[in-house]
Amino acid sequence: MQSWQMQDAKARLSEVIKLAQHDGPQEITLHGRPVAVLLSRAEFEKLSGRGQSFVEFMRSSPLYGLDELEFEREQTATSPMRASSAGSPSARPPPSTSAC
Fold it and tell me: Which Pfam families match (predicted)?
């Protein structure tokens, strides 16, 4: 990635843009520290995912069009609270709603 000082990038903006289109991102520095990167529009679209809608993204999945899709879950121990609230004899009764 080529690096440009801010004042040089401003003075030669057309050149910096053309280089971003042909050679890739161009870094811009201010007082010797990187502050920005200039990208071509195509590179920006690729990185941001704005080139396609969410529906298009989902339809491009290799799983699109499958009639059945099964997700297997690993059987792990559940927390004691969840296990006891599944109707087992050790489940706590609901709190009393009687008035005092």
Answer: PhdYeFM_antitox (PF02604)
Distances (CA, A) of 19 to 38, 39, 44: 10, 9, 15
Q: How far apart are CA 11 and CA 74, in angstroms?
A: 60
Pull the structure tokens for residue 23: 């050679």
Q: Is 45 helix (H, G, I), strand (E, B) or coil?
A: helix
The CATH superfamily label for domain 2-59 reads YefM-like domain (3.40.1620.10)
Confidence of residue 100 (pLDDT cuts 50, 70, 90): low
Contacts of 1 (CB under 8 A, 6+ apart): 24, 25, 26, 27, 37
Closest by CA to 38, choosing from 23, 20, 11, 51, is: 20
Give pLDDT tens digits for 57-80: 888 888 888 888 787 888 877 766
